[in-house]
Design a protein that fits this description.
Layout: E1 2-10, E2 39-40, H1 48-62, H2 75-85, E3 102-105, E4 109-112, E5 116-120, E6 140-148, E7 151-156, E8 171-173, E9 178-180, H3 182-185, E10 186-196, H4 199-221, H5 229-232, H6 238-252, H7 259-269, E11 274-284, E12 288-296, E13 305-309, E14 314-322, H8 327-339, E15 347-351, E16 365-366, E17 369-372, E18 376-378, E19 383-385, E20 393-396, E21 401-403, E22 422-426
Parallel strand pairs: 2-11
Antiparallel strand pairs: 1-12, 1-14, 3-12, 4-5, 4-12, 5-8, 6-7, 8-9, 10-11, 13-14, 15-21, 15-22, 16-21, 17-20, 18-19
Helix pairs in contact: 4-6, 4-7, 6-7
Length: 430
C-alpha cells in the first residue's frame, strides 16, 4: 500500500450543496423560519463522498484514462476504469463495496501553514469559558443517573453545561491546543443570481394550477351544484388563468384565506420571467487548506492538478505528496492529545468524521444531525443516476461525542470514503 497526503485549496469563491436549499415550486421540508425560497444556504466543507469522488477522478486521470461527459466508453476502457476505481459510485447504503485499487481516504481535516492540524471542536469542550484556556471535556456525574427507556444514563455534573453558552463549536488546533473560530478559517459572503424560468417550468406550473383548480371545484363548487368556467377551459393564458382563479376563490371565500388561496399564492410566486435569488459562497483564509490521507494499492499513480467541485464547478488546486503518515497516525495524534487533557477514569468518543449508526444512542451523547443525498454513477450501465428524493441518509456530524466504554454501533461498508471514524478517548490526566 502507498499513502498520500492530498491537499486542496479553492482558487476563488466556492460552495457545497446543502439539503437546506431553495425550491421555486413545491413544498419544503423545513419550518417557515428555516426556509426562504430565494436564499440558498451552502456548506463550507465538502461531503466525504464528494472528496472520495474527486480522488477517484484523479486516479483515472493520473493513469491515462480519457473521460467522457456522456459516460460512453468501450469495453476495454470500462475494464481499466473498473480495475482502478471500481464499477459503481460510493453508496451510504453500505454493504460490500469495491473501489478497485483505491483502498480508502481519511476524514477531511484542515491544515494551517502546511504543518498544523485543525479539526472540528469536540462538542463537549468547555474551553473558552472563564478560567479554561486549554481543552477540557465535560465530566459526567457517576453517582447520579437518570432513568430512561434505555436504562440508567449519567448526566454532566452541575455547572458542566450552560444552556446559554451551548456546546463547543468552531474548530480546534491540535498543534497549538487553541480554539479557532469559523471566521478565523472561512470568509462567507452572499451573492445575487438570476434564475430564468424555462418553457418546461411554465408547462409544469400550468398543470399544477389546473390540478389545484380541479381540487377546489370538487371540494367546494360541486357541493353547490355549480360548474366553473375554469373547470371546462384550459386554453386561457397563464396570467388570465391565475387572475380568474383568484377571483373565483375570493367569491367563495370572502371571510378568510383558505388552503387553496395559500397554494395558489405559492404557485403564482414562481411565475416571474426572471427570479432573483441569493446564494452563500465561501473562501478559505490565507494559510488554510483542506486535506485527506489517501491509501492506494501499489502501482497506482496519483498526481495533483486542477479539479472542479461543488456548486458552479468551483476550481480547486490539488497537491499530492507521498506520506509516511496516514489516517491511523492522524487518529493516534488526536487521541493522544485529548487523552492527556481528560481526567483519568473518564471515557468518551470523538467523531473525527460524520458517522452513521445502526441503532439508537443509549448513553449520554452530544450530537448534531444532518441529512445527505447522493449522485450515483454506474459504469456497467454507462450512465449517471440523479439525486433521489427518497435517498436521504441520517448522519451525525463530525465533532459529535459519545460517553461511556460501550462500542458505538456503526453501519458497515462506508469506511472507505472516510466515514465512521471515531477516536476513543480514555483519560490519563491525574
Amino acid at each position: 500500500m502507498t499513502d498520500y497526503l492530498v491537499t486542496f485549496r479553492p482558487l476563488g469563491d466556492y460552495s457545497f450543496g446543502s439539503d437546506r436549499r431553495f425550491s421555486f415550486v413545491g413544498k419544503n421540508n423545513y419550518s417557515e423560519d428555516e426556509y426562504a425560497p430565494y436564499f440558498i444556504r451552502t456548506n463550507r466543507v465538502p461531503e466525504q463522498s464528494t472528496v472520495f469522488g474527486m480522488i477517484r477522478y484523479l486516479i483515472l486521470v493520473s493513469n491515462g484514462i480519457q473521460l467522457n461527459q456522456n459516460f460512453q466508453y468501450d469495453d476495454d476502457t470500462r475494464d481499466n476504469m473498473k480495475d482502478l476505481i471500481g464499477e459503481k459510485s460510493f453508496s451510504l447504503n453500505g454493504g460490500v463495496q469495491s473501489f478497485g485499487k483505491l483502498e480508502k481516504i481519511s476524514p477531511i481535516f484542515l491544515r494551517k501553514n502546511s504543518k498544523e492540524i485543525v479539526i472540528l471542536n469536540p462538542f463537549n469542550n468547555k474551553q473558552g469559558r472563564e478560567g479554561i484556556d486549554q481543552f477540557e471535556p465535560m465530566i459526567l456525574e457517576k453517582e447520579f443517573t437518570l432513568s430512561t427507556s434505555f436504562g440508567e444514563i449519567a448526566l454532566p455534573k452541575s455547572k458542566e453545561y450552560n444552556p446559554k453558552e451551548g456546546y463547543g463549536d468552531g474548530y480546534y488546533n491540535i498543534n497549538t491546543g487553541r480554539l479557532e473560530t469559523i471566521e478565523d478559517i472561512f470568509r462567507t459572503k452572499v451573492v445575487t443570481g438570476v434564475r430564468r424560468v424555462t418553457q418546461n417550468d411554465l408547462v409544469k406550473l400550468k398543470q399544477n394550477l389546473l390540478d389545484l383548480c380541479k381540487l377546489f371545484v370538487n371540494a367546494t363548487m360541486k357541493q353547490k351544484q355549480e360548474v366553473s368556467n375554469l373547470d371546462k377551459n384550459s386554453n386561457l393564458s397563464l396570467t388570465d388563468f391565475i387572475n380568474d382563479f383568484m377571483d373565483l376563490l375570493e367569491k367563495y371565500n370572502k371571510r378568510e384565506v383558505n388552503h387553496f388561496q395559500e397554494e395558489l399564492e405559492k404557485l403564482s410566486q414562481s411565475f416571474d420571467e426572471d427570479r432573483l435569488f441569493k446564494r452563500e459562497v465561501h473562501q478559505l483564509q490565507k494559510g488554510y487548506e483542506f486535506a485527506v490521507y489517501v491509501t492506494v494499492k501499489e502501482g497506482v499513480q496519483l498526481t495533483g492538478g486542477l479539479v472542479s467541485m461543488g456548486q458552479k464547478g468551483s476550481l480547486f488546486k490539488v497537491s499530492v505528496q507521498k506520506s509516511e503518515n496516514n489516517e491511523n497516525n492522524l487518529e493516534s495524534e488526536i487521541t493522544k492529545h485529548f487523552q492527556k487533557h481528560t481526567p483519568k477514569g473518564q471515557t468518551w468518543h470523538y467523531c473525527l468524521s460524520d458517522v452513521c449508526l445502526l441503532n439508537d444512542v443509549t448513553g449520554f451523547a452530544i450530537l448534531e444531525e444532518k441529512l445527505v443525498r447522493q449522485l450515483h454513477t454506474d459504469l456497467k450501465e454507462n450512465r449517471l443516476k440523479g439525486l433521489s428524493l427518497q435517498g436521504h441518509h441520517l448522519l451525525y456530524k463530525a465533532g459529535s461525542v459519545f460517553y461511556g466504554d460501550d462500542k458505538i454501533p456503526l453501519k458497515s461498508g462506508i469506511e472507505a470514503a472516510g466515514y465512521n471514524v471515531i477516536c476513543k478517548i480514555e483519560g490519563s490526566k491525574v
